[in-house]
Design brief:
The protein has helices at 5-12, 58-65, 78-84, 92-97; strands spanning 17-18, 20-26, 29-35, 38-43, 46-53, 67-72, 101-103, 109-111, 116-128, 131-144, 149-153, 156-160, 169-173. By secondary structure, the protein is an alpha+beta fold. The strands form 3 sheets. Strands 2, 3, 4, 5, 6, 9, 10 and 13 form an 8-stranded antiparallel sheet that branches. A 3-stranded antiparallel sheet has the order 1-11-12, with no helix packed on it. It has a two-stranded antiparallel ribbon with strand order 7-8. It is globular, with a radius of gyration of 16 Å. The protein starts with a helix and ends in a 5-residue tail after the last strand.
């Protein structure tokens, strides 16, 4: 027995998720996409997973480059999310031109105004149904804990305010030891 796809999607819309733009750059090119399917796998070694549609033209680019950066968006960055989701009809170059980017360790584009950035090397790849699961070993991270986060819930964007604690910016260099 298989669950109805519409029912499944309606249930999944009730899961609130951080909105990220996942980027890569290398010999296969520079690209990025909007993603809410990002998950922590383990903290030792720091590893995350990202799901990318197998039919996306970007799939082979990410695999070939072997790196990615998860850029966690903040409140007010809905337009950037829409652009990288392909909803605005602009080219990939135009998507990147919307904001300021730099790089951490791997060279993947890191959004300067992101709430956080997780810079990764691809450690494993699995295919599951319509998606490719990219496992990334986090080699560097940057956090701006003073910014409100952008979350997607019930098919709409919402701002998630920062808890009323101290604000700080930090860059973390994680060990590359195996």
């Amino acid at each position: 027995m298989q669950i109805d796809r519409v029912a499944f999607r309606n249930i999944m819309a009730q899961f609130g998720a951080a909105v990220s733009v996942v980027t890569t750059e290398g010999t296969a090119g520079r690209c990025g996409f909007t993603c809410t399917a990002v998950c922590s796998v383990t903290d030792d070694p720091a590893t995350i997973l990202v799901c990318l549609n197998r039919s996306s033209q970007m799939n082979s680019v990410f695999k070939s480059n072997g790196i990615f950066c998860v850029n966690v968006l903040g409140a007010g960055q809905e337009g950037l999310s829409a652009a990288f989701a392909g909803q605005t009809g602009v080219t990939m170059a135009d998507r990147f031109a919307r904001d300021r980017w730099d790089a951490l360790v791997t060279g993947a584009p890191a959004l300067r105004d992101a709430v956080g950035a997780l810079d990764c090397t691809i450690s494993d790849i699995k295919e599951c149904g319509t998606h490719t699961i990219l496992f990334g070993k986090v080699v560097s991270a940057r956090l701006d804990s003073s910014r409100d986060s952008l979350v997607y819930f019930n098919r709409r964007y919402h701002a998630l305010p920062v808890a009323p604690t101290h604000s700080q910016q930090s860059t973390l260099a994680l060990s590359n030891a195996s």
